[in-house]
UniProtKB/TrEMBL annotation:
Keywords: Cytoplasm, Immunity, Innate immunity. GO terms for cellular component: cytoplasm. PANTHER family: TRAF-INTERACTING PROTEIN WITH FHA DOMAIN-CONTAINING PROTEIN A (PTHR31266:SF2), TRAF-INTERACTING PROTEIN WITH FHA DOMAIN-CONTAINING PROTEIN A FAMILY MEMBER (PTHR31266). The keyword Transmembrane does not apply. This is TRAF-interacting protein with FHA domain-containing protein A. SUPFAM superfamilies: SMAD/FHA domain (SSF49879). One of its GO terms (biological process) is positive regulation of canonical NF-kappaB signal transduction. InterPro entries: FHA_dom (IPR000253), SMAD_FHA_dom_sf (IPR008984), TIFA (IPR033621). It is found in: Cytoplasm. Belongs to the TIFA family. It comes from Lanius ludovicianus (Loggerhead shrike). Residues 49-121 form the FHA domain.
């Protein structure tokens, strides 16, 4: 047998991709302490903390409006399955944390969906979980977004609003189809 045949089977590693955005990131440089575009290993029994206190937090956000410890992520395996997940907990007493549409107060926690948007203040973080098999550690891969992740906050409605303010659905509910008329005919 060759050493290749005797080598242990390589296991895949769960990777948490986090894409960060803040509207003032170019001026305030709040992400300059984060290691972008390089995967980083985190032991499975370690809690990954995010905040401005570098003595406690593994991921530092250099902004006085961020709590010393803003939130934490903990890697775990679901009971009676081989599925690995992350739990997110809000550790800020002053700022609510939103995961998709779920608002978390201080010490509230939920399972992190496989793809979601985490937001607090003006911060937006797109979190995407890439599944793996390793039980000993997981990886984080940080990215920086050029544009806002939450575009829909800027766009209150995706449906065009006609100039007369009457929605096309109004006509459809009455069994009539909309007709175009010249404004001089009114």
């Amino acid at each position: 047998m060759t050493s290749f045949e005797e080598a242990e089977t390589e296991e895949t590693v769960t990777c948490l991709h986090l894409t960060f955005y803040h509207p003032c990131q170019d001026e305030k440089m709040m992400f300059h302490c984060l290691n972008f575009c390089k995967r980083e290993q985190v032991r499975a029994d370690e809690i990954a903390k995010f905040g401005r206190d570098s003595s406690v937090c593994r991921y530092n956000l250099m902004d006085t409006r961020v709590s010393r410890i803003q939130f934490s992520l903990q890697f775990f395996r679901k009971l009676h399955t081989s599925e690995y997940c992350f739990e997110i907990k809000n550790l800020s007493k002053k700022t609510k944390l939103t995961v998709n549409q779920t608002e978390l107060g201080y010490l509230n926690k939920i399972d992190l969906p496989w793809k979601c948007i985490i937001s607090f203040g003006d911060y937006q973080i797109l979190a995407e979980i890439q599944e793996g098999e390793s039980m000993d550690y997981f990886e984080t891969h940080l990215h920086l977004a050029e544009a806002p992740i939450l575009q829909e906050r800027c766009l209150p409605s995706l449906k065009p609003v006609p100039e007369n303010g009457i929605s096309p659905s109004f006509f459809l509910s009455q069994g009539k189809s909309p007709t175009e008329i010249d404004e001089n005919e009114l």
